[in-house]
Amino acid sequence: MNGYIEHANITLVNPQKTIGFLLAALPNWRIRGQGKMAEWFGKEVEWFHVGDDQSYIALQSGGESRIGDWNCHWTGVKHIGIVVDDLNNTVERLKTAGYELDHWGGDHPHRRSAYYMEEHNMQFEFVEYFSTHHSERNDYSI
């Protein structure tokens, strides 16, 4: 079996803000599970699994600040990339929901991407591929 990423877990100040962002971008995603932990290192936290049947992003409360700017030299996750079927539709949904595009990804004949910052300064990249061939999709020499 090949490995794949099932989920990433992110601690935030207000997970509801990030849930709103993700569901605006990805209408086929849903909150597939949620709950509370009464004692998580001195705090009560809520957790949410937002995604589809195969993968999700685990979001939990309990954070105390925003993430540093993605263009600084701090250690940590710089962005999370999510593949979408139609980037133009994703960008339009986010615009309609009030989210501003941060920047477009580089030019490539077989993929296109757009980057967004959500409430906690977490960066998400949405990627559309124009080829089904992995050698073209994953070509970094162009």
UniProtKB/TrEMBL annotation:
Gene3D superfamilies: 2,3-Dihydroxybiphenyl 1,2-Dioxygenase, domain 1. InterPro entries: Glyas_Bleomycin-R_OHBP_Dase, Glyas_Fos-R_dOase_dom, VOC_core. Signal peptide: none annotated. It holds the Pfam family Glyoxalase. Residues 4-129 form the VOC domain. This is VOC domain-containing protein. It comes from Vibrio thalassae.
